[in-house]
Amino acid sequence: MKKGIVSGVALLATSTFAHGQVVVIDNIGDPGGADLGGTSASQIFEDAFSIYNIAAIENFSLGAATTITTIEAMLSGFNGYGGLGGVIEYNVDIYSSEFAAEVSLTGDVFHAVFAAPSASESIEDGDGVDTFDTDLVSFDVSIDLGAGDYHVGISPRNDFGVNGQTGLRRTVGIGDGTGGYQANPSGAFGFTLQAIAAGEDYAYRVIAIPAPGAFALLGLAGVVSRRRRRA
C-alpha cells in the first residue's frame, strides 16, 4: 500500500481516461447534478476551530490488487461558503476502515495534500446558475491497493471565518446505501463517528486500473472511456 504527501498539482493529467481504467464506485450519478441531495460537512478548519475538523467518508471494496488513478467528488458548502476560490487546499485520504478515520483524519493507507483539484467543473441545472455552489472536483493519484475494504475521503482546508463550511453532497439510490460516515475525532460535533442516513451515499467516484487479470474479481461498474473538462 502506498502512503505519501502530494503537494500542488504535479501529477500528470490528460483530457481523456486511458483504456483499461474502470469505475470502482460511482455514487455521483447524473453528471448534471440531478441525483444530488443534501450536504454533509467535510472540512479542515483554521487552528481556532480545529476541534471541528471533520471528514465525510465513503466505503469501497476491491477484489484484487488495483491502482487507484482518480478520485472525484461533488463538493459544496453552506454557512457562508463562497465557492472553490476560498478553499486553501484539499486533503485526499484513504482509510483502512471507518474506525481509522474516527481516530485521525489523516488517512492510514494514503494521505495527499493538493493545492487545487486536478480538474473541476461547476455543476449547473441548465439555467446557467450554479446549483448550490456545487463543483465536481477531480484528483489524479496513483495509489496501489490490495484486495480489501476501504474508505475514501476529501476534506478541504477551508477557513470558516473567510469561506464558511465545506461539505460533500449526498445521493440516494445511486450507490449501495451503506458505508458512509462522518468522522470528527475530537467529538466536538457531539460524535466521533456518525453513519449517513440509511439509503444515502456520499457523492464520490473512484477510478482505477486493475492488476492484469483482475477485471472479473473487482465487481466494477464499467470500463471508463469519456472526456473530462479540465480546470
Task: Describe this structure as you would to a colleague.
This protein has helices at residues 98-103, 160-163, 215-218, and strands at 22-26, 36-41, 55-62, 66-78, 89-95, 110-114, 119-124, 130-145, 148-157, 165-172, 181-183, 193-195, 200-202, 204-210, 222-223. With 231 residues, the protein is mostly beta strands.
Topology of helices and strands:
Layout: E1 22-26, E2 36-41, E3 55-62, E4 66-78, E5 89-95, H1 98-103, E6 110-114, E7 119-124, E8 130-145, E9 148-157, H2 160-163, E10 165-172, E11 181-183, E12 193-195, E13 200-202, E14 204-210, H3 215-218, E15 222-223
Q: Structural class, from secondary structure content?
A: mainly beta
How much of the sequence lies in strands comes to 35-45%
Helix content: under 10%
The secondary-structure element order is: EEEEEHEEEEHEEEEEHE
Largest sheet properties:
9 strands, antiparallel
| Cα-based radius of gyration, to the nearest Å | 16 Å
Count of domains: 1
Output mean pLDDT.
Answer: 84
End-to-end separation: 29 Å
Total strands: the figure is: 15
Number of helices: 3
* 3D shape: globular
Q: Can you tell me the residue ranges where pLDDT is under 50 for at least 5 consecutive residues?
A: 1-17, 218-231
